[in-house]
Write a structure and sequence with these properties.
Layout (H helix, E strand, L loop, with lengths): L4 H20 L2 H17 L10 H20 L2 H8 L16 H13 L2 H11 L5 H8 L3 H26 L1
Length: about 170
């Protein structure tokens, strides 16, 4: 496990940034949340030493910091409504064997998912967390985590199936 704050940042900041961006679609808010997370770690260096899984623990801290910031600036619904139309590129243009139209379709489909489902999907697919770890990270039950994941996949399948079939 990395020992210094700089090492912790180097190892985990990218994953935290991607997770938060997938949840919010707002680069400025993500930067604010990351700052809060690493300030918390700087103020309480022993915090991470108690964690069984440092990545899951940091993702939970980031998720809670995001919720706190959103609650502080208004209701969650007002935030989601305000940022629902904002697009943010999740995939690099160099994504192998991909074209712009397909990439845009996937990004739009992900953006249309409810935030709770996007968060679970991201943790499962990009972070390879188990449903138990996701439940602990997001402070929900394992059943809820699995359900949100299944609903997200079902919605993505329904939306992306025509796009995929069109490419064949």
């Amino acid at each position: 496990m990395p020992s210094s704050l700089e090492q912790i940042y180097d190892v985990h900041a990218g994953a935290l940034y991607a997770f938060l961006l997938n949840c919010t679609r707002n680069h400025a808010l993500v930067q604010d949340v990351l700052q809060e997370v690493f300030l918390k770690l700087a103020r309480t260096p022993s915090l991470l030493k108690k964690a069984r899984d440092p990545r899951s623990f940091l993702l939970r801290i980031a998720h809670n910091a995001l919720l706190d910031l959103v609650r502080h600036s208004g209701t969650r619904a007002a935030y989601e409504e305000k940022h629902a139309g904002e697009a943010s590129t999740l995939f690099l243009p160099e994504f192998p064997s991909d074209d712009e139209a397909f990439r845009s379709s996937v990004e739009a489909a992900l953006q249309d998912l409810p935030q709770e489902q996007r968060a679970v999907l991201h943790l499962k697919l990009w972070e390879s967390l188990t449903f138990s770890q996701i439940a602990e990270t997001l402070e929900i039950s394992q059943h809820t985590a699995a359900s949100r994941y299944r609903y997200a996949l079902d919605k993505l399948r329904d939306v992306l199936r025509p796009v995929y079939e069109e490419r064949l």
